[in-house]
UniProtKB/TrEMBL annotation, chain A:
It comes from Roseiarcus fermentans. This is Amino acid/amide ABC transporter membrane protein 1 (HAAT family). It comes from the Bacteria. Keywords: Amino-acid transport, Cell membrane, Membrane, Transmembrane, Transmembrane helix, Transport. It holds the Pfam family BPD_transp_2. InterPro entries: ABC_transp_permease, BCAA_transport_permease. The chain crosses the membrane at residues 17-34, 40-65, 77-96, 102-127, 139-161, 236-258, 270-300, 306-325. GO terms for biological process: amino acid transport. Belongs to the binding-protein-dependent transport system permease family. LivHM subfamily.
TrEMBL record, chain B:
Belongs to the ABC transporter superfamily. One of its GO terms (biological process) is L-amino acid transport. InterPro entries: AAA+_ATPase, ABC_transporter-like_ATP-bd, ABC_transporter-like_CS, BCAA_Transport_ATP-bd_LivF, P-loop_NTPase. This is Amino acid/amide ABC transporter ATP-binding protein 2 (HAAT family). Residues 5-234 form the ABC transporter domain.
UniProtKB/TrEMBL annotation, chain C:
InterPro entries: ABC_transp_permease, LivM-like. Keywords: Cell membrane, Membrane, Transmembrane, Transmembrane helix. It comes from Roseiarcus fermentans. It comes from the Bacteria. It holds the Pfam family BPD_transp_2. It is a multi-pass membrane protein. This is Amino acid/amide ABC transporter membrane protein 2 (HAAT family). One of its GO terms (molecular function) is branched-chain amino acid transmembrane transporter activity.
């Protein structure tokens, strides 16, 4: 087929660049107000790390939504579950965490987030079969069913782990900061950024370079036509749902480590943020949610420094502004 | 020779609306059967019901000796049914190449078949790596049909391929449909343009109010203006 | 035009159930002595109004909003902060209520015009985000709202428990301000409920349902969808605002947990579904069942948990822990969504009503 590829002279796919630059623009605008360069760098690095964790949680949700119009309120429960699963791994491995060996530290961290992803992915399958599938295509009942599922899941978490938060210590190698001159950047934030970038790169590769990925993108746009080409979209969707749940768990585990504790309320807290991010990014767009995650986190950080009282509503302001500019989000997906 | 298609007493409801009210339709194997009728007669619903995108509430649909009426759309497709809907339904965010990759469900695309398709749709080769969403309406239509035939099929369901196309492109499309037919595939084609229908059709079925009201050869209908008038309400200017 | 707008509860079992609940609420101070029972009854009255106003939106207009409790909070904070700032007078109540109603209307208009044009799911998410932001704002602006701690305030003298308007008790119940407060809550909620019943049975209500069933057809018939939906949002918001005001008057306290938290929104959803969506009578059943379960199911579960713990059963004590009552309600909720989409009211409906659908 190489002969055919050569024939491709004309317009390649065009990616609009301006929406992708919004985080940079926000950073440039905020810089003079923040003043000190070191503070600005610290805030920006923290924002990017936070954005990566939010993206990890939100990217699956946007695909789940894009493919089947499922507004999944159960997503928050998987974020919380991931946090608790991390404690199950890290508390017994306290020795590895506390050891001087970076390899053991890293192994403990990797095991914890992988366990969170695997457990959440498996339970995602159960959730999809029991809660979502019976009400496919009926928006209202689906919203209600996933809310019910979220209530049950949250209560089960309380029943299993109790109502109190569980402290969770970072492996030794990731405590403290890298210091460059008078700028301090927490080591764990660098790690979180690396993991988030890896997730983004992996998703981008799968979506663009594999047939499954093509099917997912096609399904987001027109699931009926995917079926008419002979593919079983419900099986594809289960896979996407499991992957989304696994990523929610992975993100939840990372966030719990970042905060040094696991608690069920993390679910509801980040669920709302995930919704905001996928609205800003454009429903069904992984790239859009990547940009939106960084944007939202940066704005929250700058606002937190400049006007702490307003930091928590900065997300909503960002959402309203973006929607006034682009009513279907930064990167709208055709057909949505 | 491909298998023929047969519908017996098919009823389809969409919400509260009773669209198909007992369709009896046959499309003989290896021939091109035109499905004509006024807007709202139920032609698109018939194709969608065959494809499994609407579920028939009553009646039987068979391709050769295999029953289709209780199958999901994906299983109907797996029996070798290709579908080019009225909306074309190309995946805009995917490239031309990626659209065709998805059309070839059973594996990698066959280069010879691709070359054959490019023979009558050269634009697809030119825009191979472009987003399908950036194509013109005619090019999207070509892509939609190309996707439906990128693998050998038993039966092709094509819904109004010439709608909104420039006359020059319609010519290319007619050639293409004739070539496809020459491969022996059974075709059921919904078409508003009577000239196109007369040129490519072997058989013709006319629908009205959710039923098939006429069955015969295309040549006979093309020769009988009074019948056209009665069945389709055609006036001469719609031939242009 | 009858009091019930020609839309009384249908079927004997439902009539009996509704009648029993209403009678119990009407005579609650005399039937169920004790502070807990009276609090439960007052909460049921408030919730009936809140759930009924939500049902106008979700059940009749088919609009899924997660910002309904925000309007409840506006009402509660409006009255509460006015009483806190201006002193315990009826004037303060009136000022607070009017200001709250104005704010609610403005918010409902803004939400309606901004996003009712878009996909319903999009609307749901936007309202969720807005409600969340409002909640955060209320906790953050602690100089005004009292933050997480909320505000306690004095209500007008006639509503205070210490107020005596008769020297001797009535049927054994002291004639205190508490009694007046209860009947204020009861009658305002009842009147507001009847108004909502009137609204959904008016031509306007029928247009709402037509839009819900088939927006394109309704538009083709010449109904302005955005106008009708925005108006429904406003009416529903006003209902919630009044409910919030009643809640503040009864509790003599306003704070995020009692007026704004997302868990109230979830509770309201559970009540509307369990009671029966698309029928205002469902609000009465749903609110009564839920609030009673919230208050008393926990006692039952506590007993079960103790029994399970004594029998040394694994896991069960945790599942029956009184704090886990929502687990069982959540389960009932999901089952109701699957198997009884019309809720208790739908299940009790006479059979001929169901047969018509096919």
């Amino acid at each position: 087929m190489s002969a055919l590829d050569v024939g491709a002279a004309l317009p390649r796919r065009k990616i609009e660049i301006l929406p992708a630059l919004t985080p940079l623009i926000v950073a440039l605008v905020a810089a003079p107000f923040v003043g000190s360069a070191s503070t600005f760098l610290t805030l920006t690095a923290a924002g990017i790390a936070m954005g990566m964790m939010i993206f990890t949680m939100a990217s699956g949700l946007t695909l789940v939504f894009g493919m089947m119009d499922v507004l999944n309120f159960g997503h928050g429960a998987f974020i919380a579950l991931g946090a608790y699963v991390a404690t199950l791994v890290l508390l017994p491995l306290a020795g590895w965490s506390a050891s001087d060996s970076v390899a053991l530290n890293l192994a403990a961290f990797a095991l914890a987030i992988l366990a969170a992803a695997v457990v959440c992915g498996a339970l995602g399958w159960l959730f999809e079969r029991l809660i979502v599938k019976p009400v496919y295509g009926q928006h209202l009942r689906q919203i209600l069913a996933t809310i019910g599922g979220a209530i049950i899941a949250e209560q089960l978490i309380y029943a299993l782990w109790g109502p109190d938060q569980i402290p969770l210590a970072l492996p030794a190698a990731f405590r403290g900061s890298f210091v460059f001159g008078d700028t301090a950047i927490e080591k764990y934030r660098v790690l979180a950024t690396v993991v988030g970038l890896a997730v983004f790169a992996g998703e981008t590769l799968i979506l663009n370079r594999t047939k499954i990925g093509l099917l997912i993108r096609a399904g987001v746009e027109n699931r009926e036509m995917v079926e008419a080409l002979g593919y079983r979209i419900d099986r594809l969707f289960v896979g996407v749902f499991m992957a989304g749940s696994a990523l929610a768990g992975l993100g939840g585990a990372m966030m719990a480590l970042y905060r040094g504790q696991a608690h069920a309320t993390i679910g509801a807290e980040f669920l709302v943020l995930c919704f905001i991010v996928i609205i800003i990014g454009g429903l069904g767009s992984v790239g859009g949610s990547f940009v939106a995650s960084i944007l939202v986190a940066l704005i929250a950080n700058y606002a937190g420094f400049l006007a702490p009282k307003l930091a928590l509503v900065s997300n909503i302001v960002a959402m309203v502004v973006v929607l006034l500019w682009r009513p279907r989000g930064l990167y709208p997906v055709t057909g949505r | 020779m491909s298998a023929g298609l047969a519908l017996e007493g098919v009823h389809t409801h969409i919400g509260r609306y009773h669209i198909l009210q007992g369709v009896d339709l046959d499309a003989p194997g290896g021939l091109t059967t035109m499905l004509l009728g006024r807007n709202g007669a139920g032609k698109t619903t018939t194709l969608r019901t065959i494809m499994g995108l609407w579920r028939a509430s009553k009646g039987r649909i068979a391709l050769g000796d295999r029953a289709l009426h209780s199958l999901a759309a994906s299983d109907v497709a797996r029996l070798g049914v290709g579908y080019a809907p009225e909306t074309m339904a190309v995946f805009s965010d995917l490239t031309v190449k990626e659209n065709l990759i998805l059309g070839a469900r059973q594996g990698p695309m066959d280069d010879r078949r691709l070359a054959w398709i490019f023979g009558f749709f050269p634009a697809l080769r030119k825009f191979w790596l472009s987003r399908a969403g950036s194509l013109s309406g005619g090019q999207k239509q070509m892509l939609s049909i190309a996707r439906a035939i990128v693998e050998p099929r038993e039966l092709l369901l094509i819904d109004e391929p010439t709608k909104g196309l420039a006359p020059a492109i319609v010519g290319a499309l007619i050639d293409c449909l004739k070539e496809i037919k020459a491969t022996g595939v059974t075709i059921l084609l919904v078409e508003q343009n009577f000239r196109v229908a007369a040129e490519v059709g072997d058989e013709v079925r006319v629908m009205d109010n959710g039923r098939v009201v006429h069955r015969g050869s295309m040549r006979d209908l093309a020769a009988d203006q009074r019948l056209q008038m009665r069945l389709l309400g055609l006036s001469l200017d719609s031939h242009q | 035009m009858s009091l019930l707008s020609g839309d009384g509860p249908r079927g004997r079992p439902l009539q009996i159930l509704i009648g029993a609940v209403v009678l119990a609420l009407m005579l609650a101070p005399f039937l169920f002595p004790g502070a807990k029972a009276l609090n439960t009854s007052a909460k049921i009255c408030v919730m009936i109004l809140l759930v009924a106003s939500y049902d106008v939106l979700i059940g009749y207009a088919g609009i899924v909003s997660f910002a309904h409790v925000m309007f409840f909070g506006v009402g509660a904070y409006g009255v509460g902060l006015a009483l806190y700032g201006l002193g315990a007078s009826w004037t303060a109540v009136a000022i607070g209520l009017v200001a709250a109603a104005a704010l609610s209307l403005a918010l409902a208009l803004a939400i309606g015009l901004f996003s009712l044009r878009v996909q319903s799911i999009f609307f749901a998410m936007v309202t969720l985000a807005v409600a969340y932001a409002f909640n955060v704002l209320a906790s953050q602006l602690s100089d005004i709202t009292g933050g997480e701690d909320g505000r306690s305030f004095k209500v007008p003298a006639a509503l205070q428990p210490g107020f005596k308007w008769l020297d001797h008790p009535i049927f054994g119940v002291p004639a205190s301000g508490k009694l007046i407060a209860y009947y204020l809550v009861f009658f305002v909620a009842a009147v507001a409920f009847l108004v909502l019943l009137r609204v959904v049975n008016s031509p306007f209500g029928r247009v709402l349902q037509a839009i819900r069933e088939n927006p394109f057809r309704a538009e083709a018939l010449g109904y302005r969808i955005v106008f009708h939906r925005t108006l429904a949002t406003c009416i529903s918001a006003l209902g919630a605002t009044v409910a919030g005001a009643l809640s503040a008057l009864w509790l003599r306290y306003v704070g995020p947990d009692t007026a704004l938290s997302f868990s109230i929104q979830v509770d309201v959803l559970v009540m509307v579904v369990v009671g029966g969506m698309g029928s205002l009578w469902g609000a009465i059943v749903g609110a009564a069942v839920f609030v009673v379960a919230e208050g008393y199911l926990q006692d039952l579960m506590g007993a079960l948990a103790n029994a399970a713990a004594e029998a040394h059963l694994p896991l069960l004590p945790g599942l029956f822990d009184p704090h886990r009552w929502l687990l069982w309600l959540g389960l009932a909720f999901v089952l109701a969504v699957y198997f009884a989409p019309a809720g208790i009211v739908g299940a009790l409906k006479p059979a001929e009503g169901k047969g018509k659908r096919t």
